[in-house]
């Protein structure tokens, strides 16, 4: 084989690459029509996701499996209204379960319905965040279906979790409102932020990290600071304190039980350098496990761009969007503080779902970047197509499980 033939063989696309290219081109036009469609003003991608979640909920009910650990906990707790449950467990998700018991009874069905309801509400809030960032059409669809390429959202959220789900919903809703606050000077908006922040904290206490970092990021942006009403922080604190006063008082009486969960962190006593390396390695692996499928599909979408100009435009657009800079700075702050806490404490175990506060906004960020890098929308349609495939796979898996398989 000559040197020219060798170079041609090396540059020839692989069979897998050719098939992926053929798939994306085949679905490009239908996906474009799909992402542009609306029904009663509601984007078709959001309606499709809500329909998929509803079908999956029905299949989960048909499955009839014994309750998971999280579900069993909710069954034991959802027997009365309280400011907190089982040691120091926050109350909001259990309140949601109890609110649905009038429709679904006091058994496992109400617990499963609460999960379906909160996951659906999460995607509605995510659509609100995309809208606040100015995403429309293909970019909006990618911001939503991209979440299905995050395994912790697209799969795990439908079959497990309880408190983390409510925290996800209120965290995304909080960030969406804060992004709106970078463009609108309204006192009522800041009062609403206080309400949402309080419910986020009462869903899972670690949302305090996200809320605190978001406000630091907001304060670091001069464009955002100029939009803050004079009594905005007062309205925020007033509403938050009004909601949190009684639950915090309840919690302070039970702080001694916080040590019950310390074993989850797998603290190691010994060589500090080895412990730090183990903690850092597991932290990086958890980040990769959270976002890897989405990032791989986004890179697949970028393969069709000629040159690097589009990518440069995307990064330049990051600097011009106050909302995007707010989210990026919030994510970086949360990840940085998380890393410092792991290294300082000697923790070596990092559960992927602990990264919800830092990485749950990844899909809208990727959609924004692809929208600016490829104004034709093709790159975002690649994300929509593969996100739709991932969503349909979850339906297929739940269908198989409903027959007692797996």
From TrEMBL:
Keyword hit for DNA repair: no
Domain named Glycosyltransferase RgtA/B/C/D-like: residues: 89-249
Signal peptide from the UniProt entry: none
Alphabetically ordered keywords of this record: Glycosyltransferase, Membrane, Transferase, Transmembrane, Transmembrane helix
Keyword check for Transferase: yes
Residues that span the membrane, as ranges: 39-62, 108-132, 161-180, 208-224, 231-252, 283-305, 326-347, 353-370, 382-403
GO molecular function annotation: glycosyltransferase activity
Lineage top rank: taxon: Bacteria
Pfam families listed in its UniProt record: PMT_2 (PF13231)
Protein name: Dolichyl-phosphate-mannose-protein mannosyltransferase
Species whose genome carries this gene: Fulvimarina manganoxydans
Lineage: Bacteria, Pseudomonadati, Pseudomonadota, Alphaproteobacteria, Hyphomicrobiales
